[in-house]
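Design a sequence for this backbone.
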């Protein structure tokens, strides 16, 4: 029997990987999450955190000759969300199938990922030189994976044009629990933020961008990232049962995050909501009104 429905963080850091002594608790790898649902392999983004997930999956390939069917949902193609793909070792095995879901058309997604394997930057000759089977799908309508409904909502992430989507994703289990992921989104007073709040309504877990402090944000408006406070306000507005703050700034130390967490727990406005800063390698179970963290 697999672990219960939930989310595991393999990478929590925004922008660039930041492996230091003072990031060991909340994590130094760039964004990668795993939706834990039955025995399926469902991944959101492949920042450098995907490397450790790949290593774990290699045990199944090498020890059990497992043929892996892996679903990868991309929120967008910024480097910190894709750069781990060449280090995700199952991609080198013919027994692996990668089903990729892209917020952009297939040819654009292919181009964006192909350059990671370009001979100028790597010893490979493109994505098509990988031994695995790679199917890229444009994520243009909700998909069902064995009862798990996956849907999307375009968010506000300094999109260079209207068509350069960045998606929030929703994973709705047949039993009703939902995990909404808005890993890169600028919470500010506009239509896209309203759309996200509606999309995340009643989420069991809302994972939200919390890269900035208000002081940092004051000179970085329009960069596509939220403050920790605005992320929590979105969680309250969406009546999410729990908010997990992520996309930690590369400079943010464990000590600062822990101190901020304790300060926030004393703020009256935030007492109505359950929240935490996401930790790398932690698994958060999505249980209505009772969300547990294990590991
Ligand atoms: Zn990012
Ligand atoms: Zn981004």
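Sequence:
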């Amino acid at each position: 029997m697999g672990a219960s429905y939930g989310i595991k963080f393999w990478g929590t850091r925004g922008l660039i990987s930041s492996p230091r002594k003072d990031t060991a608790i909340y994590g130094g790898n760039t964004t990668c999450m795993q939706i834990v649902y039955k025995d399926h392999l469902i991944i959101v983004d492949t920042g450098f955190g995907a490397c450790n997930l790949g290593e774990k999956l290699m045990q199944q390939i090498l020890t059990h000759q497992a043929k892996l069917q892996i679903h990868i949902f991309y929120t967008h193609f910024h480097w910190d969300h894709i750069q781990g793909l060449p280090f995700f070792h199952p991609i080198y095995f013919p027994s692996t199938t990668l089903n990729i879901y892209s917020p952009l058309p297939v040819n654009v997604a292919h181009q964006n990922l192909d350059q990671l394997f370009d001979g100028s930057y790597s010893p490979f000759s493109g994505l098509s030189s990988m031994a695995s089977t790679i199917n890229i799908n444009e994520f243009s309508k909700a998909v069902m994976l064995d009862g798990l409904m996956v849907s999307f909502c375009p968010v506000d992430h300094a999109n260079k044009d209207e068509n350069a989507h960045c998606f929030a994703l929703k994973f709705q289990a047949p039993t009703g629990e939902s995990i909404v992921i808005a890993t890169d989104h600028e919470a500010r007073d506009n239509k896209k933020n309203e759309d996200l709040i509606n999309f995340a309504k009643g989420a069991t877990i809302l994972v939200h961008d919390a890269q900035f402090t208000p002081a940092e944000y004051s000179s970085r408006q329009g960069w596509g990232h939220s403050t920790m406070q605005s992320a929590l306000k979105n969680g309250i507005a969406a009546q999410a049962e729990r908010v997990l703050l992520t996309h930690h700034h590369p400079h943010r130390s464990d000590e600062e995050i822990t101190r901020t967490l304790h300060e926030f727990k004393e703020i009256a406005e935030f007492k109505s909501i359950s929240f935490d800063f996401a930790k790398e390698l932690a698994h958060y179970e999505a249980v209505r009104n009772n969300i547990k963290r294990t590991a």
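The CA atoms of residues 159 and 165 lie 7 Å apart.
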